[in-house]
Structure formats: C-alpha cells, structure tokens
Amino acid sequence: MSIILTEVRGPVAIATLNRPEALNALNTPLLDALADTLEAWDADPSVRVMIVTGSDKAFAAGADIKEMAPKSFAEMHRENIFGRQIDRIARIAKPVIAAVAGFALGGGCELAMALDILLAADTAKFGQPEITLGIMPGLGGSQRLVRAVGKAKAMELCLTGRMMDAAEALAAGLAARVVPAAELMAEAVKLAQKIAAQPLPAAAMVKEA
Ligand code: DAK
Fold first, then answer.
1. 33-69 tens-digit pLDDT
2. Residue 132 in contact with residue 110, Cβ under 8 Å?
3. How far is CA 17 from CA 14, 52, 203, in A?
4. Which of 57, 65, 139 to mutate to test the pocket of ligand 1 (most atoms within 8 A of CB)?
5. How far apart are CA 22 and CA 80, in angstroms?
6. Max CA distance (Å), the chain
7. CB atoms within 10 A of CB 117
8. Quick one: pLDDT at residue 73?
9. What is residue 77's predicted lDDT score, i.e. its pLDDT?
10. Which residue is closest in CA terms to ligand 1's atom 3?
11. Cα(54)–Cα(123) distance, integer angstroms
C-alpha cells in the first residue's frame, strides 16, 4: 500500500497521508513522496487546487520520533531533517488545503501550517509538543504558529506542549473553518472546487503575495 494515496477529481487533487500504524508520523519516505506528488500536480495543468489530508484519527502525530531519536540535535539542525521537504511543499504555487481531523502535532501541525487554508474537523487537535521531548519546533512552527495565532498563544503552546482543540484553533485564527468530522472531505472538496473556479494565475498570485 502506498504511503501517499492519491485521487484526482477534475481540477481537484487529493493526497492522503497513509501511515496509519504510526498515526501518519512524518518520516523521510512519506515526506519525499508527498513533496514529489504535490510538485507533479503543480506542474500538471489539469490540476488547479490540491488537498492534503490524513485519517480520522490523525492528520499527522508529528515528525517521526523513531527516525529522529538516534540523531543529536546538532545533527538534526545541520541535516535540516524533514525541513527540505517542508520547504519544497511550502513552495507549491497552486493553492493547497489542509483537511485536518484528529491529531496535528509537532511536524504534523507544521505541515498543515505550511499549506494555505486549514479546514478542521471538530475532532482536530493541534499542538507543538516538541518541548516535552526536549527539542523545539523545527519545521516552521516557531514562525508560522506565531503568524497564525499571535505571539502570546504561540509561546504558551510551544512552552507547555499542550493541545488545542478545533474550536480554540478556530477562535485563534489557525483554522479557517470547523466542520463535523463526517463532512470534512466533502467540505474540503467543495472549497477546493470554489477556488478551482477562479482564474488560476490570480489564485497563484494571491498565494505568492
Ligand atoms: N513518531 C513516531 N511514531 C509515532 C508518533 C511520532 N510522532 N506518534 C505516534 N506514533 C506511533 C506510536 O509509537 C504507536 O506505534 P507503536 O508503538 O504501536 O508501534 C502508534 O503511532 C500509535 O500511537 P499511540 O499508541 O501512542 O496512540 P494513542 O492514541 O495512545 O496516542 C498520541 C496518540 C498522538 C497522543 C501519541 O501517539 C503521541 O503523543 N504521539 C507523539 C506526539 C508528538 O510528540 N509529536 C511531536 C513529535 S516531535 C527539527 C525537525 C523536526 C522536528 C524538530 C526539529 N529540526 C530540523 C531541528 C519535529 C519534531 C516533532 O514533530
């Protein structure tokens, strides 16, 4: 079974993270495959909007702790582990929606924030629990979370590692909208279709700006 499931519905392309045994923890093969997939769609004129999603239980429960564990923090920083792929994903020109149900923690929350619109299921739980492992957010969380929710809440989340539910994420400005979990994908596709109906160059320029 592929680590990324793909489906294209007209102008809307959907990538589903598929590592259920590890709650979609982001390891090198998964992030390589996701970046390759999104870049291929970015270059495909028939695709206008993309959606990245996970499972009911987890969008992604973090960067893969087992892959990081043998490395020193200095090695992780020097190798920019997982950072190269997140940077590739953030450079996708077409709009990308994060459809998030369940856990979006650590690198999982950072992946969602590297995309353009975060649509949350009412089951979504966000957090940057890195500090509980003795490390700090390394995939953009220290910057993107601040921009999304402001310094005070970002500091509180990063310094305590606590989780925030979907309602709090909506109130804080991290999520654009919260929908019932059963309707998450239908709502994400509807949103994607609405964007796909707009002129693509304008959409890409809005994103770039
Ligand atoms: N990595 C690897 N495996 C994970 C994982 C993760 N982040 N999260 C869950 N899993 C695995 C579990 O180990 C378990 O596998 P088995 O032990 O059965 O083999 C399976 O997924 C199911 O998890 P649980 O049994 O724990 O499920 P529960 O429902 O009981 O709990 C949970 C769900 C999400 C509360 C729990 O799994 C959990 O706390 N997970 C870890 C969450 C976390 O701490 N995430 C942040 C990871 S740190 C950097 C680059 C990157 C980063 C930092 C720096 N630089 C370049 C400098 C990134 C850091 C992170 O993301």
1. 999 999 999 999 999 999 999 999 999 999 999 999 9
2. no
3. 10, 8, 25
4. 65
5. 22
6. 47
7. 19
8. 79
9. 86
10. 22
11. 13
pLDDT in tens, 64-92: 999 999 999 789 889 999 999 999 999 99
Of 54, 107, 140, 141, the active-site residue reads: 107
Contacts of 47 (CB under 8 A, 6+ apart): 8, 11, 12, 13, 41, 94
130 is catalytic: yes
Could you please report the per-residue DSSP string of the chain? --SEEEEEETTEEEEEE--GGGTT-B-HHHHHHHHHHHHHHHT-TT--EEEEE--SSEEE-SB-HHHHTTS-HHHHHHHTTTHHHHHHHHT-SS-EEEEE-SEEETHHHHHHHHSSEEEEETT-EEE-GGGGGT----SSHHHHHHHHH-HHHHHHHHHH---EEHHHHHHHTS-SEEE-GGGHHHHHHHHHHHHHTS-HHHHHHHHH-
Query: Which pair of structure tokens corresponds to residue 99?
Result: 């459809």
- What the block records as the tokens of 193 is 């279709």
